Amino acid sequence: MKKKLFLMRHGETLFNQLKKVQGACDSPLTEKGIQQARRAKDYFKENNIAFDHLYSSTQERASDTLEIVSGSQNYQRLKALKEMGFGSFEGEQQFLQPQGQEYFDSFYLQFGGESMVQVQTRMTKALHQIMEQDDHQTVLAVSHNGACISFLQTIWQKEKQDLVRAFPNCAIFTLAYEDQQFQLEDIIDPATNLSIL
């Protein structure tokens, strides 16, 4: 039987606003981020989408987003859903990051951070474990841009360069899960209620 996973990026944070590298470190949602989460809540309500289970990264920006979207504090926080760790690059200005695929793949290892493969491995394992549970039919999981991209690259069917590098805050990745396989069905920007796939 086909199940549904709604994987989300958190709302805008102070570090997003200040254009700072934000992985393992955390910063609070801005007022805009709170409004983005409320729009995501409206999107799910308008489309009659109700969740039987809720998951969040252990980071405050993700759990705060989940609580706004779901209106619930009954959820599980998982370290495996955290953002990529950037090591000593945490908190630096984003313009200091190199451009291109290689920086995302392994650049942060030299600073004590994670590689994309490490993030893919933990995200993929966690999401499969979540969706393999019998009573998990319609699930919401709030994570992070880099973590979501890392996971999506494992199931992406088109050219790798077509996978957007920065999705809007509160972007919703709609995934079908059947026979231990994920399939990306859509990506919604709740600010516009439009597909960005």
UniProtKB/TrEMBL annotation:
InterPro entries associated with the record: His_Pase_superF_clade-1, His_PPase_superfam, PG/BPGM_mutase_AS, PGM_Phosphatase
PROSITE patterns: PG_MUTASE (PS00175)
CDD domains reported for this sequence: HP_PGM_like
Gene3D superfamilies named among the record's database cross-references: Phosphoglycerate mutase-like
Binding site for substrate: R9, H10, G11, E12, T13, L14, F15, N16, R61
GO cellular component, one term: cytoplasm
A matching Pfam family: His_Phos_1
One GO molecular-function entry: phosphatase activity
Stored PANTHER family: BROAD-SPECIFICITY PHOSPHATASE YOR283W-RELATED, HISTIDINE PHOSPHATASE FAMILY PROTEIN
Protein name: Phosphoglycerate mutase
Organism: Enterococcus devriesei
Upper lineage: Bacteria, Bacillati, Bacillota, Bacilli, Lactobacillales
